Amino acid sequence: MSEQTNEEKAHNRTQRPQSQAFREFIGQDWGARPAGPARMEVADYTPSRHKRLSELFPGERLVFPAGDLKVRSNDTDYRFRAHSAFSHLTGLGGEDEPGAVLVLNPVEGGHEAVLYFHPRAPRSSEEFYADSRHGEFWVGPRLSAQEMSTATGLKVAHIDEMKDAISKDLGAVQIRVVPQSDPAVEALVAELRQQNGLTEGAEQADARLAEAASEIRLTKDAYEVAEIRKAIDVTKSGFEEMIRAMPRAIDHWRGERVIEGAFQAKAREEGNGLGYDTIAAAGNHANTLHWITNDGRLRDGELILIDAGAEVDSLYTADITRTLPIDGKFTEAQREVYDAVLEACERALEVAQDKVQFKDIHAAAMEVIAKHLERWGMLPVSAEESLSPEAQYHRRWMPHGTSHHLGLDVHDCAQAKRELYQDSYLEPGMIFTIEPGLYFREDDLKVPERFRGIGVRIEDDILVTEDGAIRLSEGIPRTADAVEAWMAHLQQ
What we know:
Elements: H1 6-10, H2 20-26, H3 46-56, E1 61-65, E2 71-73, E3 76-77, H4 84-90, E4 101-107, E5 110-117, H5 126-130, H6 136-139, H7 145-152, E6 155-158, H8 162-167, E7 175-177, H9 183-196, H10 202-215, H11 222-250, H12 255-270, E8 273-274, E9 279-282, E10 303-308, E11 310-311, E12 320-325, H13 332-352, H14 358-375, H15 383-386, E13 431-434, E14 437-439, E15 455-457, E16 460-465, E17 468-471, H16 480-490
Parallel strand pairs: 1-7, 5-6
Antiparallel strand pairs: 1-4, 2-3, 4-5, 8-11, 9-10, 10-12, 13-16, 14-15, 16-17
Helix pairs in contact: 11-12, 13-14
Region (Disordered): 1-24
GO cellular component, one term: cytosol
Cofactor: Mn(2+)
């Protein structure tokens, strides 16, 4: 007896009706469908995004998979989240559209964008009630081809037509696919390359496409700026919920998770969910940069560092960090560290006004950090000497970068070339974080005893305009006095 496939094994537990009478009956007497979606606002912006890529790869076929569902356990999948390059070029967000592929086909004068996806089947089909992947009885309303075209402004076709379409004229036409996006689509492209003698330099060609797809997102258009503002508004609401939850969290044996859960609920209610795993790090946990275990207690007299960002339906995210006194009041030592970090934030934003190189923002923050560490007697050399590339002693207590781009990914545009990222000059439309910190682990004997166990990071989201850099997250309190007043107001 041959071994069953996973798909066949799944049928072992099914009780799906199989009779012809049922099939005919379920396809009858359905009312009219509601009107389809209107054209999305973002559809006015995607053509210019396509054009920027078209100019970089004239005459080549460019393939951007959305990606597919990923198994969480057995036959349960994670919620779908499209590859960011696909979302940027189609405008699709939420949980749209697993298995879809956008292809930019070379045509006279540029490229034509075609979206390949699985449109809904009629209610008379078996797919409607029996297909747990695409059937509307299982997954809810789906769009027809015409509705998808109306919503996105794109030409659309059935996903089954994609293979023949991207095979056309290969050899005469080069093809690139975004790597690490959809293994099935990447395997198909590899097969077609093999058949058409296009394997040489393929890996580098695909890497360059991913790089370019990242680089065209370094400056945001008006739609993207508005979406990130929305994400920041939701994130502010989430921080307010966390502050309100603080008294309950103090009484819970895993209070950090109470805080995490309060933010997650608000992010899901008002947005698409989390832009990244929330860091809710109380006490010494704040000195672990990516503390996402969130299983510790909250104790009066300690701080909690919260790094959280809500993702809105368009998939743009915020990225905000605040360090809060758990009992509502900073101690003298906590305030001293907090104010040093805040000064570094202010200096970094001040430097960003002058359209400097991106890396200069970090350098400005480090000057402030080193100055305070010298004042506290923690450096073996002067602040000036520590700042030299050959020393960097101050980085023991601030080991990460000060800024990163922000957008569809929390660490947006990460595949861009260094000369267009760290070494670039600030341009209007760039959105990035400023997030210096100081991390004084409780077992670090080089730290003055009064500071041990204190970890502080303050993070805001910054937009470069024609007139300079502005703090998009200005509405979220950040000075020590403002934070104390904010907490007192929300907990009264």
